[in-house]
Each structure stands twice: as C-alpha cells, then as structure tokens.
Design goal:
With 57 residues, this protein is mainly α. The protein has one domain. The protein is built from three helices and no strands.
Length: 57
C-alpha cells in the first residue's frame, strides 16, 4: 500500500508518511525472518566469501 502512495500524485506529506511506513515494514521483516544475518548479507552489498570473485587474485 505504501508503494501505491509513493507513485501517485499526492502531497509530499502523505508521501513522506508512506515512505516512513515502508521503511518500518522492511525493518520489521528483517527482524522477523533474517534475525541472524546482517544487512550487508541480506542485500549482498559486500561479500565475505574468500572463494568468490572478490577473493580471487
């Protein structure tokens, strides 16, 4: 529902509330389903795998 409000022509205040709600939902989902993983591992921002492409010389 929050994405709907972000892409419709409505006032900026309503869009900011929708963006805040979307951020809170993402945080809640991370805490519920990915409690043991860090944010970097979920979104694969940085790989810690020494055998992967980043670890090869």
């Amino acid at each position: 529902m929050a994405l709907f409000f972000l892409f419709t022509p409505i006032p900026l205040g309503t869009k900011s509330i929708a963006l805040f709600g979307l951020a809170i939902n993402v945080i809640a989902l991370k805490r519920e389903y990915f409690r043991e993983k860090s944010w970097k591992r979920i979104f694969k921002i940085e790989s810690d795998d020494p055998n992967g492409p980043a670890g090869q010389n």
